[in-house]
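Thread title: Can someone regenerate the structure for this chain?

I was given the following input by a collaborator and told the matching structure tokens would be attached. They weren't. Posting the sequence so someone can regenerate them.
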Amino acid sequence: MPFSFLVLSCLSKCSSFQQLAIMPSASNSKADALREKSISFIEQGSDAVERDDRNQKKRSSVPLEGAEYTSGSSEERPLDALDSTPYLIFKKEEEEGPDLRGGTVDGLIVLAASRSKSQNDLLYQEAFLITYRTFIDSRELIDKLLYRYRKFSRCGDSARKRSSRSTFSLLVRVVSELSVSDLRDDLVRLLTDLVFQLLCDGELRLGKVLRSKVLEKYESRRSFASREALLLPSIAVASRPMVLLDFKAEHIAEQMTLLDADLFQKIEIAEMLLWAKEQSEDLSPNLTEFTEHFNNVSYWVRSKILQQDDAKDRERYLLRFVKAMKHLRKLNNFNSYLALLSALDSAPVRRLDWPKQTTETLSEYCELIDSSASFRAYRLALAETEPPCIPYIGLVLQDLTFVHIGNSDLQPDGNINFAKRWQQFNILENMRKFRTCNYNIKKNERMLGFFNNFEEHLDEETMWQISESIKPRVGRQKLNQL
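Best answer:
Regenerated them for you:
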């Protein structure tokens, strides 16, 4: 059993934090020995703990691996300072936008850990939490915060004591927003060590808060590693197979939204930034799954229409999808709305003969995603939308990519260019807001079985062949007549 999982298992089985808090620390012992001792105490129960506590009169703190931050300079380091201003860069009087423009990595960390409750500082902290991975690794950030917390918590003056608490609060926020890719074994071990040390030092409240976050994150990593594809219900044998027209457009839209929402909630903000920079499917697994789902829906819709032999049936299918789009818009599901629109406006479908009223209706729906003026219509609609909402991820990724390419990570003097991070934060803030609300939609097992994850669809070449068999191209039609 991996050590990190063993420690977490023991902590989760402990019925009282007081039992762990009273465990003695053996002077000059290694951290591993102390942890192994704690495991035996928990298994023996509270009586054994109390007996050992009576036999031990002294306690000592065990240094945590990875918690030390070093620097070659003998001068005061940014992480040792109460005021981060000397390490930051602010806008000039004639400039617009947020006051903070950049700073050293440590200076930005100290500002994020500030106790200030001003609106600007709170907004900065949110921007820092969303974008810090673009200039520092999660493990390194936690090391620096832990160094500052431990150093200030041992100081006698009240200002540094308060600062240690605000630093710990930021540390908890960082842990609570770690992504699956952040949770390497060394980081999990460091955090479990920290929880144990807090409990041994009598910091029960802090230990309890951090322990909850560590367990939550570790469980999310385990569930991600072992998760399987959604098991769809088996479709009972009926007198005839189900077809799209068996379902109302409103219900189609609801079940599409239910599937979208489940995948959307799994996307971590870090994946979005990593994709704009690296465009790696391995680093953004949830985002990759979401975009593949979008493409599958679009191809599935095209296939359903083109597979109908009768022109009237093709029209009925197309109109059912158009009505579904109307309900998707009411549900603020822009993702499936655009997946359907991309299908209905695809060349193999659009080139067929449709009634004038149908084509006019499609043209109206296309206005929402008109690319002129940088998708102004869609951006205005999204700005007026209240959660729950599922935005179109493709445009979010496009905006992030433009910001990444068009702005330097560093300022000319080598400091972090936080003006770039403000832009990234503004793009991602809406997405994070929308992820906090869920849809109240009841699952329809029968319809989900019919969807079958939208995996059964034709490929591009086959769709073109069917489209041209329904309506041959002019040149080819004349050639066949010769």
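The two ends are 76 Å apart (CA to CA).
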